[in-house]
Amino acid sequence: xxxxYLEIVSHDAAALTALxxxxxxxxxxxxxxxxxxxxxxxxxxxxxxxxxxxxxxHEQPIMRTYLEVEDIHRAVAAAGESxxxxxxxxxxxxxxxxxxxxxxxxxQHGLWQPAQARPRATAPREPRPSVVVFVSxxxxxxxxxxxxxxxxxxxxDEDHVVLEVGGLELVIHRLSNEPSPVRDTxxxxxxxxxxxxxxxLPVASIAAARAAAARFGGDVRGTQCEWEGRxxxxxxxxxxxxxxxxxxxxxxxxx
Length: 255
Description:
The chain is α+β, with helices and mostly antiparallel strands.
């Protein structure tokens, strides 16, 4: 959702023009007949800001935002179906494009279809922090982490699954030619306590994470093993292949 035009109507348009020039560094052009004789400034992203006097005695001062739409006729029709009153049907404004105004909830909503869509720069996405866990059973371990920390699956193929939570990517990757984890007679994996790394994940509730871990073949230790520090409460555990993990919830005082 992008703003195409911010329209300000005032009985003292000159004073507001000077105010916006001083506050926001805008540079306003001469009165534009396509926009009701508004003096218009164009921001760096292409958004227009116009300030004008009322066009009729009944017009009241207002600040009205016109949001850009791809098809203004379809947008107005959808607004009408939602119960909005069409105050101004789609109307061409010279070379600027086509505008409309609908009213709902006592608020005027401006719509604008520009004559030519303006290009919008999109910042390249920075690489996210990522942790890779090598396992023998990708599907089982991925299901465990999805349930444990409410992670979202971003990608999956035959040899790896990418999960996301809180800006972190967790990659569950198949380790080729590796034997299955050592398990005891009860089927529990040998916990790799001697690992140099521990994956710590935020959770809404340690208790809920403990239950989820048990359902999906892992473990979060009992309440006697929980501890608090730096605004969170934590407890260690392990995934279905014995990799040591830790889950963290907000400390009681920070909720």
